């Protein structure tokens, strides 16, 4: 799966109607709704949109015939295997009716051309785990963790005997990382799914 690295804009004219697509990476549903509200044009005939965030998605035809605008925009998002993306396609009517097929091609096509022009970044699925280690092993653990691509230490807290680390581990590397942590500490490291489960 991929998402956009930044906002992307694409505009085209189809039979005298002006279509403007704006795409944006978003973290959650609230961000998608805020973007749609902020970027919709009050002087346009239609502000149609779609977004996908994981398994959640929504789309809206904004007055166009049902299924001719929002759904084709969503299909453009899904066709490029994108996630955490919202696309707004605004139409200023030019006087020529496009028909259902024409609207589907216009909205879906404008969204797809916008998304294809965008720079993409790969989404790496991660899991959060917590570890507790003694000071004597902390430097070695951090050095080994640094060698794992896309792994991040999102927080670090020190206590009397050592440190607690919160790790964001790529799902594909999780088993290897857990095995490595156990091996380099001879089983002394504590590993938990929740911070409160750690104790010495």
From TrEMBL:
GO terms for cellular component: cytoplasm. It comes from the Bacteria. Gene3D superfamilies: 3.30.70.240, Impact, N-terminal domain. Residues 15-114 form the Impact N-terminal domain. GO terms for molecular function: guanyl ribonucleotide binding; ribonucleoside triphosphate phosphatase activity. GO terms for biological process: regulation of translational initiation. Belongs to the IMPACT family. This is Putative YigZ family protein. It comes from Pseudochrobactrum asaccharolyticum. The lineage of its organism: Bacteria, Pseudomonadati, Pseudomonadota, Alphaproteobacteria, Hyphomicrobiales.
């Amino acid at each position: 799966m991929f998402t956009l690295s930044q906002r992307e804009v694409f505009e085209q004219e189809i039979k005298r109607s002006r279509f403007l697509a704006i795409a944006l990476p978003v973290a959650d549903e609230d961000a998608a709704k805020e973007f749609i509200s902020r970027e919709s044009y009050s002087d346009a005939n239609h502000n149609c949109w779609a977004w996908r965030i994981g398994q959640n998605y929504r789309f809206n035809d904004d007055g166009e015939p049902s299924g001719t605008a929002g759904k084709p925009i969503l299909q453009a998002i899904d066709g490029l295997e994108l996630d955490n993306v919202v696309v707004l396609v605004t139409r200023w009517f030019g006087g020529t009716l496009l028909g259902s097929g024409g609207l589907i091609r216009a909205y879906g096509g404008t969204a797809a051309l916008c998304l294809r022009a965008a720079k993409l970044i790969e989404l790496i699925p991660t899991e959060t785990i917590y570890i507790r280690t003694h000071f004597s092993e902390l430097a070695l653990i951090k050095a080994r963790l640094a060698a794992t691509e896309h792994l991040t230490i999102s927080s670090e807290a020190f206590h009397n005997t050592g440190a607690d680390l919160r790790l964001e581990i790529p799902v594909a590397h999780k088993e290897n990382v857990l095995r490595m942590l156990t091996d380099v500490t001879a089983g002394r490291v504590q590993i938990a799914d929740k911070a409160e489960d750690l104790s010495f």
